[in-house]
Design a protein that fits this description.
Blueprint (H helix, E strand, L loop, with lengths): L20 H13 L5 E3 L2 E3 L3 E4 L1 H8 L3 H13 L3 E5 L4 E5 L14 H7 L8 H10 L12 H11 L5 H10 L3 E2 L2 E2 L3 H15 L17 H8 L7
Antiparallel strand pairs: 1-2, 3-5, 4-5, 6-7
Helix pairs in contact: 1-3, 2-3, 6-7
Length: 231
């Protein structure tokens, strides 16, 4: 078996969301993106049938809007095809009954079984994600990043930086910082990240703006007890 694949049954034609183009598209995408073997990511174990993603990433990969993606996910969660666990910076989607879409090894021919014993070079979804992150790590000479590389790094950090704006800005600057050529674009992203957090930081209430007053508490107590003079 040269590359991992999934199997589909014709009963899918009777699936209640089959006629919903957005839901069907997202479900097929989830089947193809799901890990076919166990992997580790950021201290988590991602099992077969699961993958790490986000709503913006799913939207970009499927061509659906964020709202369309959210609605399609809700459809499949409600009917049990998917499970979605959201974290602060990402989400893990699980394809329920994942084994239904995998080929039983007993169904393979002898020739396929022999081929299957060879090392499989296909990257998992997590390995592909890491590949984007580490693609240029070994280059000593600065090479400007692609929008996708910046997007993957911003997604990992969950910083809300717009990758297209970042790349466009430094393209216009010739990838210079002041009079110096940029050496580390990730450091520049982190600078944008800090600047964005600073801009979004709410102002602290100024409690020292009240006018200070002096009170004669003995006189106030006397008035409160009805002993004050009537004018």
């Amino acid at each position: 078996m040269g590359e991992p694949f999934i199997k589909l049954y014709k009963k899918l034609l009777k699936w209640e969301w089959y006629d919903d183009a957005n839901t069907f598209r997202l479900f097929m995408h989830c089947l193809l993106k799901a890990n076919w073997k166990e992997g580790d990511w950021h201290g988590m174990t991602i099992s077969p049938g699961q993958f790490v993603t986000s709503l913006p990433q799913l939207s970009k990969e499927t061509g659906l809007s964020i709202q369309q993606t959210r609605t399609a996910l809700a459809h499949m969660i409600s009917t049990g095809e998917l499970t979605d666990k959201a974290y602060t910076k990402f989400r893990v989607i699980t394809v329920n009954k994942w084994s239904d879409y995998q080929v039983d090894n007993r169904q393979l021919t002898d020739n396929q079984q022999t081929t299957n014993r060879q090392p499989n070079r296909q990257s998992t979804a997590i390995e592909e994600y890491k590949e984007i992150k580490n693609k240029r790590n070994n280059n000593s000479t600065f090479v400007k990043p692609t929008v996708e590389e910046v997007r993957a790094y911003c997604l990992e950090r969950g910083n809300g930086v717009d990758p297209e704006a970042f790349v466009s800005f430094y393209d216009s600057k010739g990838w210079m910082i002041g009079k110096n050529k940029m050496k580390d674009w990730k450091a520049a992203v982190r600078t944008w990240e800090r600047s964005r957090k600073k801009d979004n930081k709410p102002d602290k209430p100024k409690f020292d703006s009240f006018t200070q007053r002096s009170y004669d508490f003995t006189e106030l107590e006397r008035i409160a007890n009805g002993n004050g003079n009537n004018s």
